[in-house]
Fold:
Amino acid sequence: MRERTDSLDLGRLRLTSGEGRRLELDVALDALQFGGETYEIQPPVVPAVLDISCMTRGGYALRLRFDASLRGPCMRCLEPAEPAISVEAREVDQPGGGDELSSPYVADDVLNVHDWARDALVLALPAQLLCKEECLGLCPICGTDLNTADDDHAHEREPDPRWAKLSELKLD
Ligand SMILES: [Zn+2]
Ligand SMILES: [Zn+2]
Structure:
């Protein structure tokens, strides 16, 4: 395994104004908590491409790209799922540029790659993590996995027999 990069000293690249650099990094990603479940990142160290350009007015424009898969239960059918996520994130950090041009991931020219990659992955997540886009989920009545159930899986609209028993009880 190549060496992982958690933080990167942008100043040490000694870029001159207007100059750009593309770096290939290995970024470690922690498991995520989502919808009360834990999702492991596969692979836990992902290859990422970081584009850095030194802006003419000082500071940096940054772009980070990587692909990762999350491994955990499908939010509809609870079977194992491994949705793949493509992440592309941008940051600008310009000293004296005010809040809008100040990146929370850059301090003293050091880029916190680890935190940026984690947050960018969270922002790129779909609303639901599914085993497949067309997952049918579980039957709301009996809990059967509808992906593997018969095509004609259905329930009679008969009252539940337990209710029939209850109605036999004399409440007085
Ligand atoms: Zn599913
Ligand atoms: Zn059912």
About this structure: The mean pLDDT is 90.
